[in-house]
Amino acid sequence: MAVATTQSLEELCINSIRFLAVDAVEKAKSGHPGLPMGAAPMAFVLWDRLMRFNPKNPKWFDRDRFVLSAGHGCMLQYALMYLTGYDSVTIDDIKQFRQWESKTPGHPENFETEGVEVTTGPLGQGICNGVGLAIAEAHLAAKYNKPDLKLVDHYTYVIVGDGCNMEGVSGEACSLAGHLGLGKLIALYDDNHISIDGSTDVSFTEDVAKRFEAYGWHVQHVADGNTDLDAIQKAIEAAKAVTDKPSLIKVTTTIGYGSPNKQNTADVHGAALGADEIKLTRENLGWSYEPFVIPDDALGHMRKAVDRGASLEAEWNEPWAQYKTKYPEEAAEFERLISGKLPEGWEKALPTYTPEDKAIATRKTSEATLNALAKVLPELIGGSADLTHSNNTLLKGYGDFQKGQYQNRNLRFGVREHGMGAICNGIALHNSGLIPYGATFLVFTDYMRAAIRLSALSRAGVIYVMTHDSIGLGEDGPTHQPVETIAALRAIPNLTVIRPADGNETSAAYKVAVEYANQHRPTLLIFSRQNLPQLVGNSIEAAAKGGYILSDSEGTPELILIGTGSEVSLCVQAADKLRAEGKKVRVVSLPSWEVFEEQPAEYRESVLPKAVKKRLAVEAAVSFGWCRYVGSEGDTVSVERFGASAPGGVCLEKFGYTVDNVVAKAKALLS
Fold first, then answer.
1. Is 278 within the bounds of a domain?
2. Is the pLDDT of residue 38 over 90?
3. How many domains are contained in the chain?
4. Does residue 26 have an active-site annotation?
5. What pTM was computed for the model?
């Protein structure tokens, strides 16, 4: 049995956090011990004295959310989770830090370790996720809380580092958070002055506190984050008392605290201390225990979180029971949301179109679909990066989400594409049933690719609404024409990309997107600026399979024309001309490769039979990736250079998106 030394109980707990990190990194010969060693006091104060959570039910709805934005220091979080009694992190998991299929990977991953709220890896993403979590809390509180009963009343706590504050994405999100006055968001800034390159003085000398004051945050400074636990607690309590601003608490710490030769240096940032230095550190901090051994007194104290958490959840259940009796309609909706269920028959709201309906841009059919869904899906919330009236994403009649108006559903992200994506991830990962969407021009996904990738990695049910999808947007020219973008997005695992060709396909795209969001999968929808005709022969049901036969000839086709988005109607016209010359042509609309690939093999074969080798893909983008569907005997009508500034119709014509060119390419294949 491990016996406590003369250290105070709180010192024992803090050093337990430190040495779990030190020992795990040493065993793995990989990791970042410095941050956990320095940030252990502030983390202990937060988790032991202030944060509301239930280790035995990590999904308890009204828990405080904790985000380690400085995700490289993840052993801090794993140590806290083990010590406070989470079943998802055992001492054996700690010993398997950074190993194959471990529950303790090299950065926090929400899909791998139950109790981790968001996946933080690239610096700055976590604080942006925290902004999204706080937006979700504010929206639900404004919508469902009653003067006599509060269902939603929790905080989002984020530990950020110097690297997070250097990354531009954090500035985007934190600027918006200050504008919105998100008083339930509290960030603890681990001010240790060290990054991989050494002292931050070589590149980062701005006054971060003043910057956040300018953002509209409440800012405090704890000068001694190494030992002054009461000052840390008082600062957090003072932050909680400021209800109309988010709070930044600058906590000055020593990275690698306790290591005689490596503390306050870059050597302790991203590498194991080594056996000799660990021995010296144990002696310096009076830690006589073997690796991975925790004093019973410390573990017993930290495990009080189990009973405390159960009591907190039980206390919340009382007003919840009263709420269900007193406000049954709101309670039913709230319960549906947090249980992750969609309302019965919601898909009946999807608009349908006939060929007699007028030609219209799919960004406009997207607008109609969003507004139809808003009436039946109260969980739908989102907006654009300052392009609301170009993306057509305004939910009409639902107001702007602004300070003091958190019940509203239109988010105004400003020109902050990257921050928008990361914030949407936080909203989705709040796990309260909200379905966030974020919109901009397709080409600007380059600005937010890191956030989109993390949506896919962390299984965040975000809907990305992208417009101005090709050279067809015209005069803005090659800087705005996303010729290579679709291929790059299709390369992201677990991201579903859908490019609809008309109104019915737009409705199908949203049907898939909402269903996937509910299954914790992100979707990226791609819409045209130019008007497109309503097609003959399609339906929501067919398009929702990702690919389908739009039109066909009698018997086995000689040639298959495959199109997406605005080019499908071009394929239809070309097929009519070819058929008039006696050619057997099939037209396949393929709005989503990913959805199509999830269909049964028999269905995919019925649409694109292997025996038909002559295939022509038509898409106003690069051909990269289309070899999957056209094979060695097929061809593409594609754009293999940057676009040009000219009217959209002229661009399309000059790049070969004409009936005559498609017919000529088809004949060349057949000959």
1. yes
2. yes
3. 3
4. no
5. 0.97
